[in-house]
């Protein structure tokens, strides 16, 4: 069954009536999955026809993205600063032009989770009965692809406008490859935020000790060590070496620290 609502109210009603439906926005992850011949979902709920959900607005120090705002539009948002361009690294231009920033949080890997967490990202969730709530990005991606209620839809993503923002990642290839390790930092009105992810620990982890060092221009090495502290010492067979990931996080953290203080990269 293919469902293509024209309004958000219709979409929420369809979600309640068909709780097993696969929700489509950019459909960049769903299309390959459906083509592999796996068990098809009971219904497809396509949001592409819903009016007024592709808006990107800025007000009161936050940017609000509707569920159809693409990753490319997020990466082009000038108020995120000059270091927003690495947000483009996880996919090809063709995929970024269709993949939605909000939808990426419901996939594995959710490559945008760390930078969105550093930007104090929150997802607005609507229920068919009219209720709304917000979920912060780390809590949402703890169990990706699921919301607490089958009758709910994620209808918006909001992030803070940063004073400074830096994001660095490492992958098998510079672009269009899943993230192996990433560090994202932001200076916000309520203080600094530092988050890291690795392929073996994909839920964004906040590094409070590193946050206390971010404003100190001379504490780059201490900042890097604090960012990498607590990473898993072991990994399942076939996954990335923990020592490599720790080294990568330290290097990425040094890079982000320098960028926050206006210094060039030299790793």
Could you characterize the architecture of this molecule?
The protein has a five-stranded antiparallel beta sheet. The N and C termini lie far apart (52 Å). Helix 8 runs antiparallel to helix 9 and helix 9 crosses helix 10. It is built from ten helices and twelve strands. The chain has helices at 8-17, 30-35, 71-75, 93-96, 101-104, 113-118, 137-141, 208-214, 220-228, 242-260; strands at residues 2-3, 22-24, 44-46, 56-59, 62-65, 122-127, 132-136, 152-160, 164-171, 179-188, 191-198, 201-206. The chain has 267 residues and is of the alpha+beta class. It is 28% helix and 25% strand. The protein has two domains: 2-160, Uridine Diphospho-n-acetylenolpyruvylglucosamine Reductase, domain 3 (2-Layer Sandwich); 164-260, Enolase-like, domain 1 (2-Layer Sandwich). The model has no long low-confidence stretch (mean pLDDT 87).
End-to-end distance: 52 Å
Instruction: Using the coordinates shown, work out and report the CATH topology of the largest domain.
Output: Uridine Diphospho-n-acetylenolpyruvylglucosamine Reductase, domain 3
Mean pLDDT rating: 87
CATH class of the largest domain: Alpha Beta
Regions with little confidence, pLDDT below 50 for 5+ residues: none
Strand content: 25-35%
Helical amount:
25-40%
Number of E-type strands: 12
What is the number of helices?
10
Looking at the chains present, what oligomeric state does this protein adopt?
single chain
Shape: globular
Total domains, how many?
2
Radius of gyration, CA atoms, in whole angstroms: 19 Å
Overall structural class, as computed from helix and strand content, comes to alpha+beta
Strand order of the largest sheet: 4-5-8-6-7
Give the name of the CATH architecture of the largest domain.
2-Layer Sandwich
Biggest sheet: strands, sense, closure?
5 strands, antiparallel
Q: In sequence order, what are the helices and strands, one letter per element?
A: EHEHEEEHHHHEEHEEEEEHHH
């Amino acid at each position: 069954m293919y469902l293509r609502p024209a309004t958000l109210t219709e979409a929420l009603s369809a979600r309640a009536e068909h709780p097993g439906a696969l929700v489509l926005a950019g459909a960049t992850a769903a299309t390959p999955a459906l083509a592999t011949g796996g068990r098809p979902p009971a219904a497809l709920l396509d949001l592409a026809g819903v009016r007024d959900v592709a808006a990107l607005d800025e007000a009161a120090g936050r940017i609000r993205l509707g569920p159809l705002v693409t990753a490319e539009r997020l990466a082009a948002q000038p108020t995120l600063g000059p270091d927003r361009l690495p947000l483009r690294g996880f996919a090809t231009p063709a995929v970024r032009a269709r993949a939605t920033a909000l939808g990426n949080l419901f996939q594995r890997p959710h490559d945008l989770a760390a930078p969105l967490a550093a930007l104090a990202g929150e997802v607005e969730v609507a229920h068919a009965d009219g209720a709304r709530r917000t979920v912060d990005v780390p809590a949402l991606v703890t169990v990706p692809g699921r919301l607490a209620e089958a009758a709910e839809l994620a209808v918006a993503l909001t992030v803070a406008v940063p004073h400074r923002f830096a994001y660095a990642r490492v992958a098998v290839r510079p672009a269009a490859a899943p993230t192996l390790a990433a560090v994202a930092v932001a200076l916000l009105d309520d203080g600094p935020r530092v988050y890291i992810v690795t392929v073996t620990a994909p839920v964004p982890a906040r590094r409070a000790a590193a946050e206390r060092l971010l404003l100190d221009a001379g504490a780059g090495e201490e900042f890097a060590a604090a960012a990498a502290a607590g990473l898993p010492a072991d990994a399942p067979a076939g996954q990335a070496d923990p020592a490599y990931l720790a080294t990568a996080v330290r290097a990425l953290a040094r890079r982000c620290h320098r960028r926050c203080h206006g210094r060039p990269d030299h790793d």
